[in-house]
Amino acid sequence: MNRFFFILVSILAFFPLSGCKDKRPNPDLEKFVVKNVIHPSNNPFNEDKVELGKILYFDPRLSYKEDVSCASCHNSASPSEGFPRNKIHNSAPSLTNVALYKDVFKDPEAIELEDIVKEKVHSSLVLRDEAKTVQRLSSIQGYRELFNRAFGTPEITLDRIVLSLSTFQRTIVSKNSSFDRFVMGEETALTPAQIRGWNIFQNKAKCVQCHHGPNFSDSELHATGLPGIKDKVRTPTLRDVSKKKLFMHNGAFGSLEDTVNHFAEGGHAKGLRDPLLKPAELSDQDKKDLIEFLKALEGEPIQWEIPSIPKA
Description:
This protein is mainly alpha-helical. The protein has 2 domains: about 5-20 and about 175-295, Orthogonal Bundle (Cytochrome Bc1 Complex, Chain D, domain 2); about 45-170, Orthogonal Bundle (Cytochrome Bc1 Complex, Chain D, domain 2), CATH 1.10.760.10. The protein has helices spanning about 5-15, 45-60, 70-75, 115-120, 130-140, 140-150, 160-170, 180-185, 190-200, 255-265, 285-295; strands at about 220, 225, 235, 270-275. The strands form 2 sheets. It has a two-stranded antiparallel sheet. The chain is globular. The N and C termini lie far apart (about 55 Å). The model is unreliable at about 1-20, about 75-90 and about 105-110 (pLDDT under 50).
């Protein structure tokens, strides 16, 4: 366990939510609150770049066969679609709060979100012919106008595509949840059941060992005790988890109840299990309260209107 974890647990032990009576923000728990996302100096924020990135995100013409967009797979309500199951069999990770992860797709060398986006866009499954894709987009007047507004010139390059997609993805942020408002001093933001659930989350269930920080994720790789799964997976955010319809990286469970039961049992006996994954003695009421707390991590609605795609 790292130094940060020990500091975190110490803070939680001294500042349980059940004891928060003051309407002022709790400075020690504020580190759990999602604040403004920082955009890097080599890819500064501007609204035109966000709009361009959103359009590219929904445009299937970015893919090799022009039939799969980023949004086709990165939707937390459904497992991966668009690629043969022998190629991608996992439930595509949610991109909610993706800017808060230390690394996104198991790549310890990729530090910036731009590195990850470029690797995925340029991968053999997504964009096998960079020149062809750039040429395809460059032939569309609407795209030339969009790139001109975002970058000052109409030139379309892979780097500009990556910068736009990354800027847009940094705006996919879940924040101002009931939990956030409670921490910031709104006493009635959490119900008694949710406060009990928080205490279970950090103590009896020990969820906080992996799910901590503003994103409720340590960004590390862990084995989650699923049978037949040999790979470790990155700890997912718990922000907006109550909105999901499928859970675990392979969509193994269809409800929060099943997912909580899996972890309370310490994972499946035949599954690869992280040393931190141990059975927790949770009553039925404990589990209900824990799920109620997870619902308190649901942020303000993220707008997902499909944009108008430039016509060829």
